[in-house]
Structures are given as C-alpha cells and as structure tokens.
Design goal:
The complex is a heterodimer of chains A (115) and B (114).
Chain A lengths: L3 E4 L2 E4 L5 E7 L5 E7 L6 E6 L6 E2 L10 E5 L2 E6 L8 E8 L7 E3 L3 E5 L1
Parallel strand pairs in A: 2-11
Antiparallel strand pairs in A: 1-3, 3-8, 4-5, 4-9, 5-6, 7-8, 9-10, 9-11
Chain B lengths: L2 E5 L2 E5 L4 E8 L3 E9 L4 E7 L6 E3 L2 E6 L4 E6 L8 E12 L2 E4 L5 E6 L1
Classes of the chains: A mainly beta (115), B mainly beta (114).
C-alpha cells in the first residue's frame, strides 16, 4: 500500500487567511483526491487532482476557494483560501495506485480550525 | 443522485460479542465497494469487494457484497475494545475519463465496552 504524508497535521488560522496543505506519496499513483470531513459528518470529495492539468471539482467546490496543484505523480497541494469558520474541517488526501482494481488509501489528514 | 445508507448509525456492544454492520447503496456506474475504519482522522482501508458472494476475510473481520440486492455487510467476531471506531462504507463508481470516485455513507459508530 502507498505511504502518504500530509503537512501540516493541524493548524489554527484566522479568518480571511489562506492555508496550503501538502500531500506526498512514496510511489507514483494515477489518481489523487482531496476530501473534506466537517465535524460530525462523513467524507465529501472536494476534487480530483489531475497531474499537469486543472483539477476536477465536485459540485459545491470552486477553484477560487480551493486551488489545487499536482505537478507530478507523487505530490499535490490543496489551498483553502479566504477562510471562514465554516472551513474548519479535517482535510484528507487520498490516492489510488493504478486504476479501478486498486485500493484507495488516505493520508493522515490535516485538522484545520478557523477562528 | 448516489445514495449510501449504513445501519445502524451507532452500536454499543460488550467485548466478545459479534456485530454485523450493514451498507445499502444506489450508485450509478458501480464498480466496487470499499470498507474503512476511522478512529481519529484518517480512514484505514479494510476491504475492497468487487464480486458478489465472495467473502473477504482478515482476522476477525469479514465482508461480503451482494450486487443484485445492492448491499454489503461487515462482520466483526469476538469484538475487542480496539475495534471501537466509525466504520465507513464507500461504493466506487466510474466517473468518466478513466477516473473512479467513492461515495461515503455516514458511517456506523461502534463502541466496544470491556
């Protein structure tokens, strides 16, 4: 299975600021995703991070608020922009190895609190 | 719209009990179903099921998928306090352009009492 690291593991930020979360995988993967888990809720897909092209966002999520980069097959970043308290969540990076038959793994998560 | 329903939403058992967690789904372009255990932040992968009727087993945990009736169950035998967690069911669908996506249920919160 892929080993995934995320930085930072947690942060407390002021409203109106931005935070960039990094996701690093120890092997090349085909698909990388970013999820959000709000308090007491299940996981919601924010976007699929596409290598070398713009991310594919799910309904309700926009690039201006959650810009994503994926410069290569092992690294991605998610920025949470112009934060408000409603952005307080756990943000999770997730990867799939080589396609449909591959299992999907999650990074350790970033717990974000916006004050 | 895709739908995933897990039941029960929460469950309290004593150590040594056997539990069955349920997951029913309605997902377009269904390909497989994954189960995860979430204790703190990150969901930990348990099983991926692609074929009906074939049980997957790992220690005291087992799971099976019924693609005709659109449900899956996760069994845990001889529960231990370390099994206390939220268990998440996530059907995977083909979303086009070679990409696959998971849709998560709300989870079953299992509490195992010594």
């Amino acid at each position: 299975s892929a080993v995934i690291s995320q930085k930072p593991s947690r942060d407390i930020c002021q409203r109106g600021t931005s935070l960039t979360i990094q996701c690093q995988v120890d092997s090349q993967v085909t698909m990388m995703f970013w999820y959000r888990q709000q308090p007491g809720q299940s996981l919601t897909l924010i976007a699929t991070a596409n290598q070398g092209s713009e991310a594919t966002y799910e309904s309700g999520f926009v690039i201006d608020k959650f810009p994503i980069s994926r410069p290569n097959l092992t690294f991605s970043t998610l920025t949470v922009s112009n934060m408000s308290p409603e952005d307080s969540s756990i943000y999770l990076c997730s990867v799939v190895g080589t396609g449909e038959l591959d299992e999907q793994y999650f990074g350790p998560g970033t717990r974000l609190t916006v004050t | 719209e895709d739908k995933v329903v897990q039941s029960p939403l929460s469950l309290v058992v004593h150590e040594g009990d056997t539990v069955t967690l349920n997951c029913s789904y309605e997902v377009t372009n269904f390909r497989s179903l994954l189960w995860y255990k979430q204790e703190k932040k990150a969901p930990t992968f348990l099983f991926m099921l692609t074929s009906s009727g074939i049980e997957k087993k790992s220690g005291r945990l087992s799971s099976i998928l019924d693609k005709k009736e659109l449900f899956s169950i996760l069994n845990i035998t001889a529960t231990q306090t370390g099994d206390s967690a939220v268990y998440l069911c996530a059907p995977r669908r083909y979303s086009g352009a070679g990409s696959y996506q998971l849709t998560f249920g709300k989870g079953t919160k299992l509490s195992v009492i010594p």
